[in-house]
Amino acid sequence: MSNRTIVFIALLCALPGIVLRLAGIHYSVITDTTLYGLSILGAAFLLAWAAEAAEVDVAQGVAVAFIAFIAVLPEYAVDISFAWAAPTDPEAAHFAIANMTGGNRLLIGAAWPLIVAIMWYRSRERILHMERSYAVEVVVLAAATIYSFVIPFKSHVSLVDAAVLFSIFLAYLAVLMRAPTEEPELVGPARMIGSLPRFQRRITLLLLFVYSASSVFASAEPFAHGLVDVGTELGVDEFLLVQWIAPLASESPEFVVTAILAWRGRTAVAMGALISSKVNQWTLLVGGLPVAYAISGSTLEPMHFDVRQQEEVLLTAAQSVFAVAILVSLSLSLREAGLLFALFAVQLAFPTQHVPIGEHHISVRDLISFMYIAIAIVMFIRQRDEVRNLLRTAWSVFRDPKAFAEAHPEPSHG
């Protein structure tokens, strides 16, 4: 299938959401929700390709900032729609947390192992080694993760949390914007768009961004609320639909793009992109929830959530700290990837179950959270030297990214 055909299909997929909203057309709940979800999926692919192709025309620092926002836009739109409704519908706050935690856990529990699995299948290599410059991403992710443990114990997310998480992301962005400029390596539809003549390329990018963003914002709210209605109609837990189906639709372009990179042998680049996306979601997305809640409700009060979502946030933070412990060595082995996926699969298969321990019962979510944290602590202790090396490397990159790149040239990816 040619790149033009692929882009055309994505354009068609993104169209139903715009048509349904503008025309005020309604079918059944399941049909409407499916069409809106398809629109978000198509728009997400278009946004991903356009954002990559934009690197040809935009200075790298600006491109990084823009791409960071574009990467989470579909997920962000769905999640923010719940947070926006939360002041008048308290249950929407729980859905916002469910969607946010699902998106974050999908990246680590499914996407990361997928990259390692593809690497092993293609080359039989069992360890994915990352470039030293990615120490910055790992340290920033660690900082956001450490702070995130405060949130579940408060049972709310506030503007203070948003300020801290946004500050962490801005510090990360400041490093990226000072990094040396590199020629973008585009593949697939992004390469086709990026190779157009300058004027034609810029017009194409503008139209793609406007069209895709329109589709996302037209579809996000009805898709989010439609999932809740579908759950009620089918007798399925609506929290599970919001937590897994919605993020799966919005995250799928990133899964596909990074999987293609890994298939072509660029596994370190694919993994780096996923880590960067995790940083974006764990800072921008989480911090955006209380901001939307405050603006919508004209209040400075925090957005509260219930015990179940408290456990979900704790589990997401615990999974993140375990991921950081693995990446301290700037590598990810096949066995570690298998463990990431296994623990993710267990929580996915038993989302609401409880395990008897003595006279008490503990939820599977809390049990796996404790496992993540316990394993992470052991790994940090065993890797004390690697932790120090990681911090020194990150500090060197932070002080002078260009000098570090010149002193430690990265190998060619081929």
Main features:
17 helices; globular; mainly alpha; 414 residues; two-stranded antiparallel sheet; A middle domain of Talin 1
Please explain how this structure is put together.
The chain has helices spanning 3-13, 15-23, 29-53, 60-85, 90-123, 135-148, 150-154, 159-177, 188-194, 198-234, 238-263, 267-297, 307-327, 334-349, 364-382, 384-399, 401-407; strands at residues 127-129, 156-157, 303-304, 331-333, 354-357, 360-363. α6 crosses α16 (384-399) and α11 (238-263) runs antiparallel to α12. It is mostly helical and 414 residues long. A hairpin with a 2-residue loop joins β5 and β6 (360-363). It has a single domain (3-407), classed as NCX, central ion-binding region (A middle domain of Talin 1), CATH 1.20.1420.30.
